[in-house]
Fold this sequence. Notes:
Elements: H1 7-17, H2 26-35, H3 44-52, H4 63-71, H5 79-92, E1 96-103, E2 107-117, E3 120-124, E4 136-137, E5 142-146, E6 149-156, E7 161-168, E8 171-177
Helix pairs in contact: 1-4
Amino acid sequence: xxxxxxxxxxxxxxxxxxIERGAPDLATLNEVIRAHRRITFENVSSLIxxxxxxxxxxxxxxxxxxxxxWTERRGGGACYEVGGMLGRLLEALGYEVFPVLAQIxxxxxxxxxxxxxxxxxxxxxxxxxxxxFEAIAADDTTEIRRAGLSYRFRPDPATRKLVQDRWVxxxxxxxxxx
Length: 178
């Protein structure tokens, strides 16, 4: 990821999430992920940014301004905003993290993060409307059942990608490829 943010930005973000700084381990990572339920999943802000850019490229996020919007409860974000913010925060907290593009409807239509901890990679996917409240091991098959929804994450050795299946019509069906 790009440059680390200031200590002030990190302190503001941690205070907004209502968490304490901890060692970069799986327990703390899951605490940070769960705290992101405070951020509303919405895409209106993304659509406005895209529209305001016109025919040109969408400008980079102003992470300080976005944190202010969140702390003032004036907006939320989708995968690109929330993931970008969380990636910077995790770096500042001592995690090794990198963005990963995913395919839902078309390649690059979703963004998440991978964190490296103790020689393993963990999917961190907070910028979505799904009830995913913990890091998911990228090298194991993991099933999550919550709020009447079922998800399965599994590595695909043929493509070397992580696949998220969703339970639809009494069967798991591929939905996201990371």
